[in-house]
Amino acid sequence: MHVQSEAPPPVTNETTTKPATPFDRLGGHATMEAICNRFYDLMDSDPAYAELRAMHAADLAPMRKGLPLFLAGWAGGPRDWFEANPGRCMMSLHAPFTINRAVAGQWAEAMQRAIADVSPEPPELARGLSKALSDLALSMGRD
Ligand code: HEM
């Protein structure tokens, strides 16, 4: 007997929406701003980060604006910072500074604390962000 089966639906990967980026999933600009504000508050107030603080300008307001916009683009979100700073990269930004391992460790620790304090969701992505940023900072330390 011949059984007529329905044709299976076409297999397609087409989708009308783009997959959410880490930036989107972590809460967008509000999360990046909260993390960076906490990071600079810690840097500004905890003597453990005095050496790192001393490398920065007296006025941290420009960094409070710049770092969250940098992180937004870095995490797959809007690339405004990169468009406003053509050709700027981690190397060129930090070339004027001598970053030893101690100060790289201060950056990494303050960022880990800032992310833990803000504790964005989902937690596994927040842990990934914390590890990626602290590994990046630690890789910049040279003695
Ligand atoms: C490893 C330890 C690090 C040290 C000691 C350090 C230090 C600095 C200093 C002193 C400045 C200039 C600040 C000012 O003018 O007040 C700066 C700028 C900047 N840093 Fe770092 N940094 C470190 C790691 C990082 C990491 C891991 C990132 C990114 C994930 C980063 C992103 C930036 C950006 C985007 C700017 C420029 C922001 C802007 O002008 O818009 N830094 N950094």
UniProtKB/TrEMBL annotation:
Stretches the record annotates as Disordered: 1-26
Family annotation (Pfam families): Bac_globin (PF01152)
Source superkingdom: Bacteria
Necessary cofactors: heme
InterPro entries (UniProt xref): Globin-like_sf, Globin/Proto, Globin_bac-like_CS, Hemoglobin_trunc
Keyword Transport included in the entry's annotation: yes
Keyword Heme tagged: yes
Keywords: Heme, Iron, Metal-binding, Transport
Protein name: Group II truncated hemoglobin
